[in-house]
Design a protein that fits this description.
Layout lengths: L3 H36 L3 H29 L1 H21 L3 H29 L2 H32 L3 H5 L1 H15 L14 H20 L3 H23 L14 H17 L1 H13 L4 H8 L1 H19 L2 H19 L8 H27 L7 H30 L10 H27 L6
Helix pairs in contact: 1-2, 1-4, 1-5, 1-7, 1-11, 2-3, 2-4, 2-8, 2-16, 3-4, 3-7, 4-16, 5-12, 5-13, 5-15, 8-9, 8-16, 10-14, 10-15, 10-16, 10-17, 11-12, 11-17, 13-15, 14-15, 14-17, 16-17
Length: about 450
Amino acid sequence: MEDRSLQRTALLVTTLSSLLTPMMASAVNIAMPAIARDFAMDAVSLSWVASAYLLAAAIFLLPFGRLADIVGRKRIFKIGTVVFAAASLLAGWSAEANAFLFARLVQGIGAAMIFGTGIAILTSVFPPHRRGWVLGINVAATYTGLSLGPFIGGLLTQYLGWRSVFLLNVPLGALILAAIWLKMPQEWADSRGEPFDWKGSLVYLLMLTAFMLGFTWLPRWSGLVLLVAAAGVAPLFVSWEIRHVHPIFQFRLIRGNSVFAFSNLAALVNYSATFAITFLLSLYLQYIKGFTPRAAGLVLIAQPVVMAVFSPLAGRLSDRMEPRLVASAGMGLSAAGLFLFVWLNSQSGLWYIVPALMLVGFGFALFSSPNTNAVMGSVEKKYYGVASATLGTMRMVGQMLSMAIATLVFSLFIGRVRITPAGYPLFLTSMRVSFLIFFVLCGCGVFLSLARGRMR
């Protein structure tokens, strides 16, 4: 028997959280030049405003997803909301760059608790025949947050200062907690009583941290050393997890389950190819085109608005036809949009930029909801938390890799200097090279998406 009241509450709570976190992330991108001025950050250091958050979220998503299956998905979700709001307060009060970046790390930990449980809660509450629809609404909320972020971030940065972007999260977090407290008494813990794999979690955290930092620190020797260390630890982690009775990650979800494996790989590639678009174009519009933060935010709204409009439709479509076909078509359209950005220059007009953003947004909408539906529909109920966290990890690692690629290109072409008018030609070159890399990645992702096999 379906509990419609519980379903509505769960959808409301997870939708609010899916609105909050991406709204903050996209708003921060608009505030980047203002943050750089206040803390005197160079181009490489500035990229860590996003990367610190993404690194923490990526490495903690899987452990918190597994922990949520054991102790309760709602419990971890609530704690994550508290941590996220508290870290936002700390970021808004930070007096110097290191304290600010630390607050971003803590914010990422809170986001990991939210991302690792939200989709799992929805999948626990709604039956399979309605799952694509509600996941589409959840994804639409994410893109609505991304849509509102540039506009709200631009307004707040221009009129109240960049710190207000972070302080806004505090009352929104309180609203989510109130909704959970008053309207969602039920808990979900389908693996209750099973032990938590602490050793595997520690090895996983160290391995992923070494990989992410190593990639970001290239081409320095320290980056190469960390990548080699991560590669050396990976076989040990896999060996431990296969032998453990209750591992942090069920490798059986990958072995013999091509839908789960290739859907997650496709998500990794897709986010690696698309996340840094807002970061690069925010800098381009404000530095090269001379836009105010508010005006830049209005331009960047084009992509997430299209995502928000079409995601529920794509989710419903994936309930009726093969998800891999819808998702693969979407990734192909995103690749086409990225190809248009390769040719950006100082003379490019909004007539060129906005349609390219809309094309990427439409492609992403077609990809995301069906791909999420494919992942969650390919596992047993007891693994919903791990599956949700795995997909979230792919998203966060992909976003981190996207920023790492942009950072690496900046390091090679610009170096550790602030972006000034004298360096604008090098900035444009590095931006176009980044978009070329992203186009190639997204093109390869189409084949990964098609390779997942049929669900029906």
